[in-house]
Amino acid sequence: MDQSGGVLHLSKQVAEEEPLLRVQGLKKVFRSGESDLVLFENLSFEVKRGEMLAIVGESGAGKSTLLHILSALDHASAGDVYCAQLKLNSLSADDAAKFRNQDAGFVWQFHYLLPEFTAAENVGMPLLQRGRSWTQVAPEASRWLREVGLEQRGHHRSGELSGGEQQRVALARALITSPKLLLADEPTGDLDGQTAEAVFELIARLHREYQLTSVIATHNLSFARRCHRVLRLERGRVEEIRPETLPV
Question: Which domains are assigned to the chain?
């Protein structure tokens, strides 16, 4: 973020590159008793490499469901999602798991750290799932804990960490695989104002320094305002709005 207004400015190079993420005609329907509930339909948008995109909207608008579809955790009822040249909605369960382990990092509102493991072990879990030994993984886990300012807390279990520290560990875990795409679902929603600000600043710095492509669902319009672009999900439709028009 720059110091003049907190906006992450797009470079000419970013603007000219092919999109990393393409969403075409997306629809999601849930069965509710005898009727169908259409959460959203005909959603189409693109996210260029290097962009930080905010998705805003009221609770229940479908932000979390949309992120689950973008990460191949859920399937759309219709439409297509591409990450680079990979068509996510056609992946098998095994290939979807591989995509999440290698190409997409996810940060949830709740950290979902495994309580029986240390912070370092939680960070290293995606690499351990690939079959690598702890001896191989430990240096990478320490490096990413250092990136989020928690290198000295690596031996602590999640219950010994504050809420902000837990979310920093979750962010390090999401990024240890060097993903193409970072998805964050209300990553500051459970934090107090000051801690939330610090976590968002950290996400923004790592986005910039590691040239990530990030999609962040958030209720915090001040944070959304500081992203490259903002999409508002409302009444089953998506509308792009200018970040500078959002409240600070």
Answer: 51-74+94-245 (3.40.50.300)
